[in-house]
Structure formats: structure tokens, C-alpha cells
User: Fold this.
Amino acid sequence: MAGAEDPPGIVVGRVQVEKASSILAEQLRERILAGDLRDGDPLPTERDLAQQSGLSRASVREALRILDIEGLITTRLGRNGGSAVRRPTHDVVVRSVNLFIRGQKTLFRSLLETREALEPACARLAALRRTARDLAALDTLQRRLEDSYAEIPAFLDVNLEWHLAVARAGHNELLTAFMVAISDALHAGTDLENFNSDEVRATVIRAHQRVLQAIRDGDGDAAARRMARHVGAYAAQVRRRAAPDEADAAAARGAG
Assistant:
């Protein structure tokens, strides 16, 4: 029509279509996480999954590979092989966090700050929720720590175990998973030459004794306060005595 204006141009972006394998992986993932598929339940064979979903065997195989990488299934190869459900464990968090630490080149300073934020909360919960078995485990680790005083590598290993035992005694799965996830990098970052002196190790032992007493007494406030003082003082020692590049490199090795 004369005089009519042309309609305004419409720009449509490219439409991204999700891969069929990703859609199948998402369906299976949701069923696993919702509990419809339980730990150890076998999944249908590749052939059966292909028939049920209408996808190719290659797409089914890719979907299973995705879930295997995520730690949600285990796959056994061979004539009697197949895939079975595996409920998420701490390993999933550990692997993801370690990849993040290495990929982002996370500074050791950030790891120390994370520890200072998490560990007082872990100690508080441990004081409020610990069982007789938890206390027995902590007492055993405390004795091992004191016995290993003269051997620095053994001392550092037991020290790490003690802190993870405090987290477990709080019976908060997510906090425990995060502590496990950063523990190797923290361990490596404090295993530095000329850092773990006799004085430092003696101070650690005394601090653990005070935290453990508060946990035994069921005093959450005291446990959190003492743990905050302990990890804060330890972090300050690391910052004063360790060259940043050295600590960062050690932490990256631990995350790997």
C-alpha cells in the first residue's frame, strides 16, 4: 500500500538446542538425586536405554559418561559390565573444589580465609552434637598428635585428621565436605621449610586441648571462640613466615 511504512526489522539470535545426551543425563541425574534410583541400583543397558529414549547408542554412551564424571554412577566394562547408581559423596565436592582451586589459581590467602570462616562453625556444632564415639576419636587423635610432636610430617598429617574429625563431629555433611575439599591444599600450604618450629607445634597442641575441652563440655560458644583464635593465630603465622608465592605453589600441588 502506498505510503505504508515497512515493518521494523526483527533480529533473532541463534537458537541453542541442547544435545540429546545432555537431556538424557539430566533426566537420569534428577532421578538419582530425587532418590528414585538408589545407591547400587543397576541402570538399564545401553541398548535398553537407547530403545526406551529413542536415542542412538552413541548419545546414550555420552550421557552415561557425563554421569560417571560427575560421580553419580559407576561403570564396569566388559561382557558382564554395566552402570550402577552411586550416591554423591565427599569426593564429588573435593574434585570440583580442587579443579576450581587449580583452574582459578586460588591464592593461599583465600584458603586461609575460608578455613577461618568454616572451622569455628564446625567446632560449635561439634560441641553441640558430638557423640561418645566422636569424642573417643578426637581423644585418640589428640594423643597421636602429641606423640608425633618430634616428627613434623607425621605431626602435620595427624593435625589434619584432627581438624577433619572436629568437622565430622558436627554432623553437618556440607561443612564436612567443604573441609575435606580444602584440606589437602591447606596441608600442602603449611608444609613449608622452617615454618613448623617446636614452638609452633607446641602451640598447636595446647590450642587443640582447649578446643577439645570445650567440645567435651558441650560449650558451643567456647569451642567456636577457641577454634577461631587457633586458626586465626596459625594463619597469621603462615602469613608472616611464608613467602606468598611459596605458599600458593604448595597449595596448588596439594589441590592436584
